[in-house]
């Protein structure tokens, strides 16, 4: 029996090969499950109603594969994608696992590492394009420091900028359709990662040669780890016209990077995030960059994947109810006060309007005394989410 919360490809849900393929290994312990081959992942995700699968170069092709092996693996994978109707909307490069990248890739103080990172990324962009990807993500996992005595902060920013400018030109020279999505994270695995927040990415993007090709790939867990409000970060990215991709998962605040199932922890933030995405008309893929708990076997991995998608769809339905609930809408209408004359005065400057505004009298005491009804509004929201409205 299908329900309205069963995903279909039209919902544009995606998972990374590295997410459902994760074997439960963590810094303290070995794998607890065998994982799946890329072809098995394609089969299973298609059965669950996902739209696509994303990958790092080495999720599919081992770093030391021969050219022949590469071609065989890629053609087998392409066959599975076409057999099961799954897309590869996003590709990215693993610039963090190999020891060569231990002190950064594009921001390494070693020019040879920076050159190798560019070479590896171009090859990975070729692979992504071959698989039909239109979004290319840059997550600078190792781009950071523990030792600022290394004295490379300003140089690192310049090296990173040069690399992205180079790769945007490479993409254009190959005729690829890529838009680039930069993914901020404050720390882990480095002590400090460069560009820790969505806002810092936005500032940096403005300095790139082809800034129109670059946007942000914000991730729920990354802002939450740092105690920030992820929904606010996403709103700023949308406002800048830069939401090119999004990584959904969950996380307890202030902990290590947990990559929990979407909605596993912060129902309310997840709700406002889904509402923001849906109300804003975001039409890109919704990518779950999360993995099943280490306690799980194969069945638990697919329960995890299904859960991410169902929770999103349940919250999407709740957002629709919120927008149609007359009591909630009345509370919102009472909260917001519009004044056409004042808005006309304040929405853009003229010397004359400034004079009129300076002469205006405001009842400061009344403004301060007004109750905003936010307790009532928030309780209505809580009751909606808890299923009693
Ligand atoms: C992390 C990151 C990564 C990236 C991935 C795709 O915390 O490890 O979120 O999962 O998203 O490398 O770029
Ligand atoms: Mn992450
Ligand atoms: Mn991510």
TrEMBL record:
Its cofactor is Mg(2+). Keywords: Carbohydrate metabolism, Cytoplasm, Isomerase, Magnesium, Metal-binding, Xylose metabolism. Mg(2+) 2 binds at residues 219, 222, 257, 259. Residues 42-291 form the Xylose isomerase-like TIM barrel domain. It is found in: Cytoplasm. It comes from the Bacteria. Mg(2+) 1 binds at residues 183, 219, 247, 289. The active site is at residues 56, 59. It catalyses: alpha-D-xylose = alpha-D-xylulofuranose. Its main location: cytoplasm. Its EC number is 5.3.1.5. Binds 2 magnesium ions per subunit. GO terms for molecular function: xylose isomerase activity. It is an enzyme of class 5 (isomerase). PANTHER family: PTHR48408, XYLOSE ISOMERASE. Belongs to the xylose isomerase family. NCBIfam families: xylA_Arthro. Homotetramer. This is Xylose isomerase. The lineage of its organism: Bacteria, Thermotogati, Deinococcota, Deinococci, Deinococcales. The gene is xylA.
